[in-house]
Write a structure and sequence with these properties.
0% strand; 13 helices; mainly alpha; Helix Hairpins; globular
């Protein structure tokens, strides 16, 4: 039965679960898959999540199906290890998120009114999530903000959580004043030559920039991804232009590349 399911192109979720069980079989499975642990798989999970985000960012819809499959495989991997260690099964994981979604949407699955804005729904969610955190023994304001998040995203979430209890600037102008203060402190640290001081002040600068993004209603991770993509696009255009003229970035001067950058930037803005 296992073989017929493994090779069934329409086997769906049961097929994937069976494949993973076979890969992890200590007698007949794949040596690499058998050796993996929670810790070794975790970095792949983060990488796959970013590849999903990248495909969406590029609107590469043909690729997205495969990237989502790669991400789903991570969940299947963890649940197989959980099953082997008698911690939890795939069905228990699926039921857990299903229970959570039903509990968090009483306006869909219960008797609450659906006549509310997305903003009100977000506030309602926060109340429910706060109760869930309390039930898990997370009493402090910042409890539950995952340590494994990218640092910029975690900064954003920490500030957002603190703002709920009033620990926040009143407006973006005050955050800009703080940025100027942090810039001066960073400049002083740079003059000192102390790596530890520079790193500390650079962290403060990035932290307050994340706070400014929050005040302006911008996701700092998304903003930086957008700028990374813009930089890549423009630098590639510089490289292509130089290649046409028979040279390369390594051979060009900074002035030449800067001029091309400004030219490409102007062309993009004129479109």
């Amino acid at each position: 039965m296992s073989d017929s399911l493994v090779f069934d192109p329409k086997g769906g979720m049961p097929r994937l679960l069976e494949i993973m069980a076979r890969l992890r079989d200590p007698e007949t499975g794949c040596p690499w898959d058998i050796e993996q642990s929670w810790e070794t798989i975790a970095p792949y999970t983060i990488e796959e999540a970013y590849e999903v985000a990248d495909a969406i960012e590029r609107e590469a819809w043909d690729e997205l199906k495969g990237e989502l499959g790669d991400l789903l495989l991570q969940v299947v991997y963890y649940t197989q290890m959980g099953t082997e260690e008698e911690r939890f099964t795939f069905d228990e994981v699926a039921n857990s998120i299903s229970d959570k979604m039903v509990a968090r949407h009483p306006h869909v699955f219960g008797d609450e009114s659906r006549d509310k804005s997305a903003e009100q729904q977000t506030r309602d969610w926060e109340v429910v999530k706060a109760a869930e955190r309390k039930a898990k023994g997370e009493e402090r304001v910042l409890d539950g903000v995952a340590m494994g998040l990218p640092a910029l995203l975690r900064a954003y979430k920490l500030q957002k959580r603190a703002a709920r209890v009033g620990f926040d600037w009143d407006n973006a102008d005050l955050v800009l004043d703080k940025i100027r203060e942090e810039a001066e402190e960073l400049a002083e640290a740079a003059k000192s030559g102390s790596h530890d001081a520079i790193e500390d002040e650079m962290g403060d600068m990035l932290f307050v920039l994340a706070n400014l993004a929050r005040h302006l209603g911008v996701d700092p991770e998304q903003a930086l991804r957008r700028t990374n993509a813009k930089f890549t696009r423009r630098f590639n255009a510089i490289e292509d232009t130089l290649h046409v003229s028979g040279t390369s970035p390594a051979e060009a001067t900074l002035d030449e590349m800067d001029a091309l950058w400004n030219q490409i930037k102007a062309q993009e803005k004129s479109r």
